Here is the input.
Amino acid sequence: MASPSSIEGLGASPQAAAEQRSQGGDSPRLLLCVPSLPDDVLSGLLADLATVFRRDEVLIASPDIEEPEFTPALPLTVFDGTRVRSDWVLTAGDYVAANELMQRHDATQVLLLGADVAALPVRAIREMADRIAAGGDLAVPSYSLGAHDGLVASALLYPLTRALFAANIRFPLPMDAAMSRRMAERMASVAQRQAASQADALLWPVAESAAAGFSARQVDSGAPIPSAPAASDFNTLFVTVAGGIFAEIEAKAQFWQRSRGPAAAMREPPAGQKNGGSGDIAEELPGMVEAFRLAHRNLQEIWALALPPQSLLALKKLSIAEPEAFTMGPALWARLVYDFALAFHLRSLNRGHLLGAFTPVYLAWVASTVRTVTDDATAAAHREETAAAFEREKPYLVARWRWPDRFNP
Amino acid sequence: MTILLQLERGIAAYTQSGKEWMMGQQIEFALRQSMHRVLVVLVSFLPGLLAFLVAVVLFAIVGAILGGLVRRILTMTRFDERLSRGTGSATPASLFEWTSNQPPSRLASRALFWLCTLVGVAIGISAFAASYSADNQMPIFLLPYLTHVIGAVLILFAGTVIARFLARSVLISAVNAQLQYARILSVGVKWLVMVLAAAMALDHLHIGGSIVSLAFGILFGGIVLTLSLAVGLGSRDLVSRSIERTMERPSGSSEVTSQRAADAQPRSRLRHF
Here is the structure.
């Protein structure tokens, strides 16, 4: 790592700095990769970043420029990565490209920013960089949540990451990530294995850092949770994300089967913007319950291939419950998720079909949550209760993973 | 007089028993001839059968060795792990997951094994056919038909597999789209494919001729018409809303990109991601 004093002594003029960088005489401490942005947004972002970063400690990599530039704000270089889906979370191609650029410029930290960069406060970006500079390996932002926001993360990603990888990170599938050099190299090596078959494969840096024994931190950004891309429909995105986390669980089975203590307690990020009253959403409950009943009528034979009799019985009871009593308990939900993760591993049926059949079960959890959660406080309590249930039910997953047939007659 | 009568009767009886004895002899001779012919045919049949069995067993062993080798190589190169990352329908993994509940490496090795076995069967059949001389009187017309039977069985197997896969895909997609007639749609698609496969198999076996084609056309058309009516009548509102949305949607792709999450959420007030 170049010391700040040595860096400061080199920056007499942008041109001189450019020459020296090209000769390898100077290396930025932090490489900051931004997504493709309109010119005015990019210049505004650079101006904002210049308020928290010195120009000699950071190098901005943008895919929108064709050759390195040294603007009055901050130096720019070309980010020639394959940003396949730059309007959502980071993918394999991003990590590979960032690592290549990091090696080329001999940087010691990299900060990959996603499409939400305009909403992410520069203070949070600075804090992420500081966490890495202080010896951390991974820093990801946490977003403020409304009562009915980020449901997939609350239902699936956060509880699974916390229970299986002992990492208390609220958003394990980040849009932005700050990484140390060794973390970036590890992610790039994982990404390179994926990129051959699928350049837009989702990677799980939190799980990866946990498996490697690296430290992962989150930074309260205060920004609202970024929206999903408009081009994809919910079913496609859900199948992609659920399949991604199940594949990660399968790949790291040896890691999470070893017993380890619960994850450290985490402070809930402050609540986000209100998105309509809970009363309005409660009006949708009968429709959601009816949708689950439709799924139960039609998908029983498919569920029977993936779920043990106890879980099927619980779903049957749920299907005859009235909307006012429609409750999927955290323990039942945890077991259902674990059952589907195991079926994914065992390939009990085609994985696309399995994940498609999992979608109505998730929506049943959403219906139950909508009925239970009325405000931000109850939402936070419900999230915590769900995550704790996943931790309590982990022995069930371990037992089924090791002896799958024991649970079937 | 009485003595003469008794003598006449005795001679008649003797003549009768002589005739019966001769008939028995003739029957016995005919049976022996038949048995001889059967044995001759069997003797000429057995070498061909033996050649067939040797070819099948030999190629099955080669297939098992090659399959094991391929599986070991794929395991070493972590083939399953690489493929399992992709779960979308466009990924290579989906090709392996059409029917199987086995890892792709095992599926590949099994496919190789069965390919070799099929090659063995084909070579065995040709060896079987070659063991017959042209003047052989055994009716061999069934032999080329055997290959058609194998082809028809393969067509039926593939048809069943594809029908099951498509039926499940349609069922799950329709349920996730909250269509009330999901089951009907799924069963309809399944029978469409099954009828198509059955018609192809019968055509391959040269059974039925134009009757099969005609029946297939009527049945296929009937199923399509039924599905069209079921979907058309059942989801008029859905279709009209869909057309309205298409008409109202702005054509610029940049505007679509900036219109975030609107389509990604099945219910507008809930944010899943």
